[in-house]
Design goal:
With 160 residues, the chain is mainly α. It is built from 5 helices and no strands. It holds the Pfam family CarS-like.
Length: 160
């Protein structure tokens, strides 16, 4: 049970710390991961909200947390990176579908960024598949339910 909570916290860190870093640092270190490139459909590859600052801050937060709780720095760094790659995959798909970065896409906005790192945890930590599914479901539901609250508190820029 504790491992599930720790992994859930890591998912929240990977996806939440980049938002906090953007608030703290403003435009500093905000170079977009896609370099501003467009895909062959003329739309942004990922968009300006996917930054190197976000990748580094999300990875470091997960890495440090994993180190503190005894899972190891390397596991945490890779876990965080996979969560952010999952988020970038979601953004790529949303751009291809013509959706803005602020557009709501239930499931697509949560599942890839939770599932990719949880697959790593499944193998690295030899977890039961039910633990993986449970943490992904918990992250998905909590993200959908709590995002409007975080928006009202001024932490998120969109209510979803």
């Amino acid at each position: 049970m504790l491992i599930s909570l720790e992994l859930f916290v890591m998912l929240v860190l990977a996806n939440g710390v980049p938002v906090v870093a953007a608030r703290v640092f403003g435009r500093r270190w905000s170079a977009p991961v896609d370099g501003g490139r467009l895909w062959r459909d003329g739309r942004p590859l990922l968009g300006n909200s996917k930054t190197w600052r976000g990748v580094v801050s999300g990875m470091l937060a997960c890495g440090l947390f994993a180190l503190i709780i005894g899972m190891g720095l390397l596991f945490g760094l890779v876990f965080g990176l996979l969560g952010l790659i999952g988020d970038m995959i979601s953004s790529f798909i949303k751009r291809r579908a013509g959706l803005d970065s602020s557009a709501r896409a239930l499931g697509l906005d949560q599942i890839p960024e939770a599932l990719l790192p949880m697959i790593l945890a499944w193998y690295w930590l030899e977890l039961n598949g039910l633990v993986v599914a449970g943490v992904v479901a918990l992250f998905t539901v909590s993200n959908i339910v709590l995002s409007p609250l975080l928006f009202r508190l001024g932490i998120r820029h969109q209510p979803h």
